[in-house]
User: Fold this.
Amino acid sequence: MNDTSIQPLVLIADDDDMTRSLMSAALAEHDFETIEVGNGKDAVKLIPRLNPDLVILDVQMPEMDGFSACEAIRATASEPAPPIVIVTGSDDTVSVERAFDVGATDFISKPVNWSLLGHRMRYILRGAQTRDTLARREAENNALLEALPDRLAVVDRAGNILNYLTRDEQEIERYSHGSLDDLLPRTNLNQVLTAIRQVMVSEADQTIEVTGEIGLHQQTGIRHYEIRITPQAPGMALLILRDVTTRKQAEERIHQLAFFDSLTALPNRHHFLHLTHQELVSNPNEQFALFQLDIDQFRRINETLGNDAGDQVLTQVAERLQSLAFELTKSGRNAQCARLGSNEFALLAPFEDKLFLSAISSRLNALFATPINSGRHELIVTASVGMALFPDDAADSNDLHTYAAHALQTSKQAGGNILTLYADCHQNASHSLLELEMDLRRAIENDELTPYFQPKYNLARNTLAGAELLLRWFHPRHGAIPPNTFIPLAEQSGLIVDIDRWVTDCVCAHLSKWQEAGLNPAPISINISGRAFSYDKPATTLARALSTHQVDPELLEIEITETVLMADPQTATATLTELKNMGIRLAIDDFGTGYSSLSYLKQFPLDTLKIDRAFVTDLEHDENDRALCHAMVTMAHSLGLNVVAEGIETEYQRTYLRSIGCELAQGYLLDKPMPAEEFAEVLSANRNRIVHATQAMEQPKIRH
Assistant:
């Protein structure tokens, strides 16, 4: 439609030349522009080309009368169609009725009052514009409501529904002017009503979750809804109801797959660590024994008889261990068992005296006395066992597991098929660890640690996207010391804070060096320990290193584990926000091995989620691992996070992860960890093909 604030265009169709002239003159006095035609057929033809703001049609015209012309215009004109005025006799009521039937906006009676014509047309034009505006807004609102997955309900203090909006007309009819007790489970009703009243008093939003057989959903069964309550007019509140059942089910699936072993259904290592901690904290005056078992020569079974035979051995050992734990629990001792790794199991059992402890040890040994049936074979298997006691050997769950693992290692080194007490090997171990700690301290002071860089690649584009810095220690006498040996030692001794500072300065120095060399540095990820994150103000350390070496903060990504974040979520949020405001990217590391709750992750300003290698290793053979990885990727994307998969070692793993939308990956299939000099060559070779993590996602994800 033309801009009526300038000069509205009126198309006049009348076979009387004098009437057309008088009508044009009367409208010109009121700033209308007019175009005249002598019949309805010509008017219909001109509509698409002129797009007039108003059409005036006389009833009696040759070739096509006013009624037929009006009907044709309504049938062919694009929306919004112009208002149409029919000119008819003053006493011709039949014509007036027919005019409205064929779509006329209004009518003018003859004889025409020329002095009022312009005013009348202005009024009709304003009315049409108002109707068009309302229709457009209604269409926009309907489109918005159609796209909105939420239900909206305006309620009063008592929970009466004053207005209900959704795209389902049956729901609107059912719940409008009803009550919340028709809509929500009774078990949640009081909670929601209390929240509504609190919102009305405080005028601050609240969000709660309800679960149950909720009336508004067509499907049967338990549904989960997130309800956001926001204040409206006095005595009223707006409820925004969102169905989060799919998200909840995915989270529950992640929890199940993350906390329990898919083959034996026993708790896995990370869940068992949590269970051990709970038992010790809940029963500080009890004595506990932790047994860690490793099936001797298990690799030979897999290599000789195949993986299926190996799985049968593991399953039967798990069943026997679970049976022992069940018997101990029935006798009043809450014993728990777990599968810690490939062929490693654990049993945690309370005891009163050494005699009872000896009985548990004997029962544990008896588990392996009976042969295990593996298809056509009967196998006699043995196990190496390590045992540590609480509180005699260890004062907390972490130390208890560490010491039991050390005792197990001693049993394996002695040839297997024996049980070793931590107390028996404690003295020699303490001396060795103290010596190693002193060497590590000197290595930090003398700059003897070596950074290695493992590239990350964009799976969809097969381009370099960054790297993770991995620390290596080459001892002058003992050779390469594995990180899983010296990192725990550094954490126990407090040296980890010095290592974190060294790593921060080291990575910034290398980034600066690569920039000066004219390379296009890819973002580098570094790990921050829990101790440094909680007590050492990492933002200050990072800001100093970035400033000293003049490095862009976007080239740095900090990886923090779930356990560290959830130890103190409030402090973690403040620290992460400070780092985020500096421009540093943030990643959650080893996801799936800790709390595995994306509900918790919503509160942290993260950029990336890293899937732990434990869920990638068996992707080809483990349906549960595939389901878990798919759920993690989907849920991470719903929170606007990139996803990095660790430990890619086979083509199947790469192909599957790419197919489910995982953006980035690292692992030996793609590239091994390498010294800084080699990584500089990789940067040089990929100088013009680097796709940073911020560009990895094919399309933006929205954080809800």
